[in-house]
Write a structure and sequence with these properties.
Nucleotidyltransferase, domain 5; 11 helices; five-stranded mixed beta sheet; 498 residues; single chain; alpha+beta
């Protein structure tokens, strides 16, 4: 990704940095005040690029559940009941599959988690939606920590890090799978080393009380810190046969992530931001409503690349034709002598013809044919740009596939050219946010169809989310595993009469 905006949200501030490749172009901090919100909006207006929000908040909850292995709508309904049971008051929630059990019914181990205080996130999210920021996702520090412990062979592992503006983060992994995480604010009068010593003992007892650390098992503790803090920690941490300590030098971790920054202390904020930029997890706390402008950004990028591919293909075809002409030039030279002889004979024959002029009707026909050939094709921009404009007005519609071809058999419409073939586009997409409300979904699709018709397309509905026609069979077209309703359209377009 050439350019991205990385955001780090703690309880009392939002840190923003614009990166190009692995270089930090600019960075700023904002507080939840009118001045801070205005400053953040200005940054968003000036930088319309993919944006990633990383949170490090105390109010993040984790619940481990074993549930039946289900698929499709049954699985969605089960997750929704769990969300309503655990996290009814927040939209920032997700379910992560840890593993499928190998015995018995082979149930699923699911980690349900949520950011339980949406009031810390919504003010910044509202600004991003207002500025139409292409937000790719909302992530948390525990959620992206797993790659930092992959190299350590341990069944029971505790990762400790310190983020300057949020506090001391302790994340527990069992078999390299996230189980639970705790964040403790670090006050100014408490050093990083003392905070680690004080909180480590409490976390160890907490894991024991939850039976997350079986009796007799050794807890491996990886501490992400600066080399200046390492010697102090080695002296202050108590010796315990049940705990093994392993220190990860923050400068070395930064080099592995190809960071050019030199770390002056144990603040790991930049480590996690770079980890988010290079190794994002597949799930996050954002909904489709939060990321709709990112989906539109991706669609525009696909359409632009499609145009580039068409132009490149045309250039390659032209170059191939020129090369073939060069190959044929040698054969042409052999025919030159014969052509000269034929030319002399032809000239002698034509000189015996009476002098005549070319009829004006033939000249007019030739010019008309040449003009028609020039107007036969249509530029991709003329055909696709109105579709992109229509999608801007219907954010709940997403396009998955686009097929384009020409057809001379499409019915004619008023005020369009009748002497050129129609450009036919087949769209396959889905609608999000309707759940099981098919009436609203069908009405929304009909409005989208009317909008396309007003833009000059002849629209034919191929499939609907629910086929209720007299000749069709009632079929649910929802996408399995997602709360989406599938549909397909055929669009026919001819140039307007000028």
């Amino acid at each position: 990704m050439k350019q991205a905006l990385l955001l780090f949200l703690s309880a009392d501030r939002l840190h923003a940095q614009l990166v190009a490749g692995r270089e930090i172009v600019l960075q700023s901090d904002f507080t939840d005040t009118p001045e801070g919100r205005d400053g953040f909006a200005s940054v968003l207006r000036a930088n319309k690029c993919p944006t990633f929000l990383l949170t490090d908040l105390i109010e993040e909850d984790f619940r481990h559940e074993i549930v039946p292995h289900l698929m499709g709508s049954s699985r969605d309904a089960l997750f929704q009941r769990k969300f309503d049971q655990f996290y009814r008051g927040t939209p920032f929630r997700k379910a992560t599959l840890l593993q499928r059990q190998k015995t018995g019914r082979r149930d699923d181990d699911i980690l349900f988690s949520a950011l339980t205080n949406p009031g810390l996130i919504l003010p910044w999210l509202d600004i991003m939606i207002e500025q139409q920021t292409p937000l790719a996702g909302i992530y948390s520090v525990p959620q992206i920590s797993e790659p930092l412990v992959k190299d350590l062979a341990s069944k029971h592992l505790l990762l400790i890090s310190w983020e300057k503006f949020s506090g001391l983060r302790q994340t527990y992994f069992s078999d390299h799978r996230l189980q639970i995480s705790r964040l403790t604010p670090v006050h100014a009068e408490l050093t990083f080393q003392d905070a680690v010593v004080n909180e480590l003992g409490r976390t160890y007892q907490y894991l024991k009380s939850l039976s997350l650390l079986p009796s007799g098992q050794t807890l491996d503790v990886r501490i992400l810190c600066h080399e200046n803090d390492r010697s102090e920690l080695q002296n202050k941490l108590p010796s315990d046969a049940d705990v093994r300590y392993e220190f990860a030098d923050i400068d070395e971790v930064g080099k592995k992530l190809k960071l050019k920054q030199h770390f002056a202390d144990s603040d790991a904020s930049q480590i996690f931001l770079q980890q988010l930029a290079t190794n994002r997890p597949g799930t996050n706390y954002a909904s489709a409503e939060h990321t709709r402008y990112y989906s539109m950004w991706q669609l525009r990028r696909v359409l632009n690349w499609g145009s580039v591919v068409l132009i490149t293909a045309s250039i390659v075809w032209s170059a191939t034709t020129i090369w073939q002409s060069g190959v044929n030039s040698s054969a042409a030279s052999k025919l030159t002598a014969q052509a000269q002889r034929l030319s002399i004979e032809t000239r002698q024959i034509t000189q015996s013809f009476p002098v005549t002029d070319t009829p004006a009707a033939d000249m007019k026909s030739s010019v008309s044919v040449m003009r028609k050939l020039d107007e036969y094709g249509s530029a991709p921009k003329n055909v696709l740009e109105p579709i992109s404009a229509a999608l801007d007005h219907f954010p709940q519609i997403g396009i998955n596939e686009l097929d384009w071809h020409e057809s001379a058999t499409e019915p004619l419409t008023a005020n369009t050219r009748t002497d050129v073939p129609a450009q036919v586009i087949n769209l396959k997409g889905d609608m999000q946010g309707f759940g099981d409300d098919y009436r609203a979904a069908l009405a929304y699709l009909d409005s989208f169809k009317q909008d396309l018709s007003q833009r000059g397309y002849q629209v034919t509905v191929l499939t609907k989310p629910l086929d209720v026609s007299p000749t069709g069979s009632i079929a649910d077209q929802s996408v399995a595993g997602e709360n989406k309703l599938a549909f397909s359209l055929k669009l026919a377009w001819r140039p307007p009469v000028t």
